[in-house]
């Protein structure tokens, strides 16, 4: 199993990313995901920059919506870690049980129609090609 | 290739679903997806009921957000038909190019972190298990 | 695009596999899949042996059921080539439109419940672990 | 982790679905999957109706074959819960170890040829397009 | 369909990325992938930086091996665009037909054993957990 | 859970495969994967022949590179067993932590660009079609 790199034993480069995670998220917790990929500092750097940008940079989607999209991908892929961490994050950002139920309903239905489209070999309508 | 069932040649059961799609979506267009699965009326019935429920029943998620979630699943699965049809629907509901770019950025990043979590075999943090 | 290796230009090793495909399937048609992987004879050999064994060796599953299972996997993965070829093969082995509709209904529903199981992080019941 | 809704604490709406599951399956056991999605009654309703319809309504596929198809999808997607529950159900419906071995052989081989078709970028034969 | 942003009509920010792609790849061609995601400059920036880093920064894996790994992922996911572009790139970096055949053989076999591991619900050996 | 077939209780057919695994891998360990699929001897035979061929037959890819490709597929699919066993095998063949980090970076990035290509519905460049 991957060694989790704790702040105390981390290099300056890794600590610098941990500090930015703490500042951005406004709490001290560094989760196992960051501690694991910290074994390869370029990956930690690049991944944190991407997550920070897509999840917190100003834009048209509010923070809660961004978490719901993240859950939709993670559930579709079956990533146990990501489902657990992003569901927790979404609840912290205001997702109620009902909202989670609605979200899961859409994810489930989309996975259904995706396969029906495959199996029935359906041609894309002209009006959807613009 | 699957025969597309047009309204004119459809059974009463299928026409009844087409009518409900038109009423619900407030336009006359029946797309190829519905015309294709109409070859099996029980599937058409059940699938339309599911889509209608998750996409239009009153709830906490607004219509545009529901389309974005649908796109997130379809892009992750690589369903060409669904990506084309739901991107068109999302634009009709107000999705700008910028919003689409933000959405794609989250989808892309989530597909990255899902695989990092797999490969680094990361244990789920206790605090995410509640 | 991959060069398709026709019988006339094939090596003895490749022709030997093509001959066995023809004998086993009782018709002369060598489809594009075999002609494409024939570019790497070890892959052609090994893949034909596997397909021949799982699809035609005596067993408890009848030939049509084996094709339905093959379609279920191919639709779930979204493999356009395999969906087209195995749907054609299944029809040749007796699959009616109704049977195809029932098959697609199960595939669609399974893809739904698979994701619900992921997203709701459901623990496996003890009785299913035996 | 999701709270599992037991019959005793369930609403009338949820109990009604549990009752139908028991009647249809002819045993009293409500598994964790149903107890988990019961947190969102519309999802429980819709999902049970779908599963009931595709798995038990009269049709051309027998009950055991329907479970094999369900396993094929679940194994391809890697859904741990569904693999465990449907393998148990299939055994209860008559699946022997040998049949399971044959099923797994087809699933494995189909996942192979699906990727060969992708990687070799194989054009669909004209005769498979009808 | 997405508008492809040509150099001539691009903003300075986008041109700057196109220039870096040209310099890094030592040729003038900007492919459709970059021209499409250029519709959202932050995505273009971040994605190019990631690709540039993982594919060209000094490391233990040589350039051709990196392309093979990229193909392995793309074939597994069935991404038509990426399979075509990275197979072309790998050939340019020295991949022979034989090497491609060996690569595809491994990809195919891994997709098989991945599903066998799922379906047989195999516990991870202790010695693989370190 | 699947019964693991130990050498002592195995049939001659299964023992013959176990012997070949030991000889080929030059150590006595038979892992859980082989012991599990040994429940269906034709699958054990065919799968071992495939793995042996793609991973050890003489070719242009060295043994360590073959393991990296195997990991790339397994991480993309999220197969817990295969990730654990092949990461262990790769380390035994010389994969350093840095090399693993580089590998994971490519896998992660490829999973990103695969989805961007899907979502932006990007047409394949003519020059990639040859």
TrEMBL record, chains A, B, C, D, E, F:
Gene3D superfamilies: AhpD-like (1.20.1290.10). Pfam families: CMD (PF02627). InterPro entries: AhpD-like, AhpD_core, CMD-like. Residues 42-120 form the Carboxymuconolactone decarboxylase-like domain. This is Carboxymuconolactone decarboxylase family protein. It comes from the Bacteria. GO terms for molecular function: peroxiredoxin activity.
